[in-house]
Amino acid sequence: MNEAVTLDRASGARVASEPIGSIPLAFTLNGEARHLHVSPWTTLLDLLRDTLDLTGSKKGCDHGQCGACTVLIDGKRMNSCLKLAVTLDGHDVTTIEGLGQPGDLHPLQAAFIEHDAFQCGYCTPGQICSAQGLINEGHAKNREDVREQMSGNLCRCGAYPNIADAVLEVLGTEKSE
Amino acid sequence: MNASTKIGIGTPLSRVDGVDKVTGAAPYAAEYNVANLLYGVTVSSRIAKGKITAIDEAAARAVPGVVDILSHANRPKQAWLDRSWKDELSIPGEPFKAFHDAQILFAGQPIAVVVAETFEAARFAASLLEVTYEGEAHNIDFEASLAEKFLPKPGSRRNNYHPPKSRGDAQAAFNEAAVSHEATYHLAPEHHNPMEMHATTVEWHGDGKVTVYDKNQGSQGVQAYLASAFGLGKKNVRVVNAYVGGGFGSGLRPQWQVQVATMATIHLERSVRVVMTRAQMFTHGYRPECTYTVKLGAEHTGKLTSIMGDATTSTSRFENNMEDIVTWGMMNYASPNIHGEYAIAPRDTYTSADMRAPGAATGMTLFEIAIDEMAYKAKVDPLEFRLINYSEVDGMNQTPFTSKALREAYREGAERFDWDQRSPEPRSMKEGRELIGWGVATGMWDAQFSKTSASAKLNANGHLEVACATSDIGTGTYTVMVQVAADTLGVAPEQITAKLGDSDLPTAPVEGGSWGAASTGAAVQLACETIAKKLFKAAGKMDSKPLGDAKFEDVEFVEGTIRRKDAGGQPLALTEVMRASEFTVIEAEETASPGIGGMISMAQKSRNTHSAIFCEVRVDEELNQVRVTRIVNAVAAGRIINPKTARSQILGGVTMGIGMALHEETFADARLGRWMNHSFAEYHIPAQADIHDIEVIFVDEPDAEVTPLGVKGLGEIGIVGTAAAVANAIYHATGTRVRSLPITIDKLMG
């Protein structure tokens, strides 16, 4: 089945449409098989936010410099603003919405709340996806590692110590340096 | 009411909006995917000054999906008079009006918007717009602008500016002083750079009605502004800012994207979204560049005899942005002779703006570097020097403080930091290849209170809703509202919903000046107290007389019940009162304002927060790389509503202070008239690896007078003085005194 990407703006419903030059894309999004048609110039981030209404992934710079748009692609963290959607054919994408939901929080989400690891919340989904990527990589053993390996995710509110605490709790590692 | 048995205020409740934020469910301004939405991409001026002579739209309009292009040449009607464009925090001058005419006032000025069915089409088409300019000579170099510095006349100054008050003969005392110090300090321009870029989604409802989802720090200010500028009428404009991805002052005044998005919506009669790019986040307000000459005179003992300050900050050519720079040092220290001078210098940029602790973050910080230098000259420990010159009253205004626990902050901070283990001489502490330095500085900010209204609504099922048009820019306002309501009515936090960030809600000012918690908290408390009184009255009408002959003063509201403080009788469930009285809902709306007593108190007493910041740096002896390895910030800020979120506020302020000390600087290209480093790759803010150990202490500071809840506010005090503590620690580590922030490696190499 081909699912079209264009919203019918008048009704708000997603209806079949075939934009000129659209390219078929089959991938897994938050555990669900998706078959879309996308434009070659659409980033994964804009596809998520504007078309699929998955606005948990944030746009903070659109240049791969802030990490707010971090998602997991095949379990690896990636700035979704730097990834063209058409390149994802056959891949597995997990966004913050796929990690956990209200009532069924992912351990990182719960730890972020407990440690007050955010203020405005805008960098938070990217931080959490990045932290899951860090855990998947398996390289971080202590606070210094976490601080270094979470440095691709900027937080202007300055929640860094609390973010490190939250990640360390889930890593199950000693908090002390 | 007896607070001792309450839950709510003083407990470390996790943020009530936490689940929405960590799951991505919380919607920010660009995330309302309303039906029939168009995307606007704004084109920025390539020149700094002059005028647009032509715009060739042909190629842009040929892009499939492009709906329209708006510029000064074809924009819809908007207000002509400057007074129609005033906002809640307008400053003297002519407010910027996007697409108003062909004039270019600054590089990056929004000059056209391309509106299309998709973001990608709009972005591509915007790149095809051919704009021809006629340039004029411009200046964005701060040093050069000082030749034109001036002091606006009283009456044409901005509202919250406080002119320095001089006393005695400071110059003579300086000349005669046994120990003296004179130096000029500098702060680079800084841009706020909240993580969320300024964004607006305008939903068109037809018949001139719009809902404006906008990034700002005050929904009602933006509502009034748009209603006036576009002649819409307030009832047709609803502004929503339920979630704001950081502000730090950048959302105090309406930013240009809300103008552009609203203009396009009205013209096209369709919903339009406009989001700034990160580069465009450098085309509006910024913390003004500052030069500040400090002269200090003291006796041999280190007792100050003269404080002199002369500062200039940058503004634009179209508005006069003024800050209190030289006043902070004069307020914080005791000196018989003080003298302050202040001016502003215009240049061809957007107007500088309030950024986290405007004035103090600059003036107090730079002054605290001068104080450190003076301590060394007087051969007095830098902490001891501050205690020698401690002022029990506001040193400039000579008014008492409602409270000032700075002495306790110094003591508790020093103890935690082990300040007494410090070796006095610079370059005397070392480990491996790193020089170690310990520095101290003082912070000071206003404790303000602003007239605010709130409503409360108790439902028959025991659920309580409190509401206020205020904003939560990450400050924790949602959580504070729930805690104050829980404290006042004894309802469990899980049973309470806080609503904010909507111009339809009870009146509130912009979220700024650190007055949010004190003001919104007081309004919520009043509204909940009114509910309490209504409940008590209803309970009195119950046939069973469950509270007996108790007066209102004799009862307390705890655990969802009303009960007698003398423990007589059974606790009476609020839901039982509701049921017995056949109420489906009890509602109240109240306004907290300083009142006459408060106004008198404000005139007679100074109201401030204070802090003592202790900092350890480690500086690589060969590479001059600086690491801020330890900070203890002891804060005296009255009553703390939530220790968990309060600590976070200070962590955030300290982190931004470390940025001010080491990283943040927007570079001006005088030739092009542009900010050069307009991206996160080149404008450095602290990253996770830059931040080590930060400890926050809240000093006990009971203050029943400062605000109704005894709360002083915490949004800004954390940044004030932090960069000075870092700079002073760097001097102690290296023996190199850098008087220009940020302290980058090149400056340490000398």
TrEMBL record, chain A:
This is Xanthine dehydrogenase YagT iron-sulfur-binding subunit. Keywords: 2Fe-2S, Iron, Iron-sulfur, Metal-binding, Oxidoreductase. One of its GO terms (molecular function) is oxidoreductase activity, acting on the aldehyde or oxo group of donors. InterPro entries: 2Fe-2S-bd, 2Fe-2S-bd_dom_sf, 2Fe-2S_ferredoxin-like_sf, 2Fe-2S_ferredoxin-type, 2Fe2S_fd_BS, Aldehyde_Oxdr_Iron-Sulfur, Beta-grasp_dom_sf. SUPFAM superfamilies: 2Fe-2S ferredoxin-like, CO dehydrogenase ISP C-domain like. Residues 23-99 form the 2Fe-2S ferredoxin-type domain. It comes from Novosphingobium fluoreni.
From TrEMBL, chain B:
InterPro entries: Ald_Oxase/Xan_DH_a/b, Ald_Oxase/Xan_DH_a/b_sf, Ald_Oxase/xanthine_DH-like, AldOxase/xan_DH_MoCoBD1, AldOxase/xan_DH_MoCoBD2, AldOxase/xan_DH_Mopterin-bd_sf. Transmembrane segments: none annotated. Keywords: Oxidoreductase. This is Xanthine dehydrogenase YagR molybdenum-binding subunit. PANTHER family: DEHYDROGENASE, XANTHINE DEHYDROGENASE. One of its GO terms (molecular function) is iron ion binding. It comes from the Bacteria. Pfam families: Ald_Xan_dh_C (PF01315), MoCoBD_1 (PF02738), MoCoBD_2 (PF20256). Its EC number is 1.17.1.4. The keyword Ribonucleoprotein does not apply. Residues 23-137 form the Aldehyde oxidase/xanthine dehydrogenase a/b hammerhead domain.
